[in-house]
Specification:
Layout (H helix, E strand, L loop, with lengths): L9 H26 L1 H7 L7 H28 L5 H22 L5 H21 L5
Helix pairs in contact: 1-2, 1-3, 1-5, 3-4, 4-5
Amino acid sequence: MTDTNTTKTLPQKALMIIVALLAVNFIVTGLRYIIDPATVAAEFGMPLLDGLGRSSQIGDLSAFFMSMGIFMLLALKTGERLWFYPTTILLSLTALSRVLAWAFQDAALATTMIVAEVVISGLLLLAANKLSSAKE
C-alpha cells in the first residue's frame, strides 16, 4: 500500500535536491571556517582576526553555517516544517542586519549577499509549505 503523503512529485523532488545542495554547501562552508578560515573569511570580505576575535569569528561563523545546514537536512529527513524555520530566521535576520549595518554603521551595502539570503529564505518557506508532512 502506497502512502500518498510520502509520494513526491517531480517539482517536490527538485526542490528537495536544491535544499539538500544548499544544506551541504552551508555545512561545507562551516567546516571550511575551521580548516581554512582565512580563505573563507576573505570570500566574505573579512580579514581573519587575531586572538579572541579569531576564536569568535571561527567559532561563531562555523556554528552558524553548520547549524543552518543541519536544520535543513533535518527538515528534509523528518518532513517536519518546523526545521525549515531556524535557517529561514537566521538568514532573514542576517539580511536585515546587513541593511541596518549599511544604514547606521557605515558598512558597504552587501547587495549580492542580501539577495542570496532573501532568495534562500523564500525557498525555505516554499519548502516548508510544499515538502513537509501533512500532520493535522
